[in-house]
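Appendix B. One record, verbatim.
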Amino acid sequence: MLFLKEHRQVALHVACGDITDVSIDGDRLVVNASEGMLAQILKDGRREIENALRWQGLELKLEVNLIESKNLPQQEDINKLKKLVGDKLTIIGG
């Protein structure tokens, strides 16, 4: 990520900070993203990311997979609120 920041790849630098599902499979760095915009930024910046990996001494090819989110963003927010306030949460109109 430092390589990207130093080479003024700010959008990629920020996008890489949002990656939470990543693995190495052979010679591939596999990134699973549930957000279309994040996946597209990573795909568009593939060359820069692979350059950053080589700078670290890693010869990996980037593979970005768009995965389907289990919940809509609204449902994820509701689930977080339920964890915070429990059965005190009342949902109207849903």
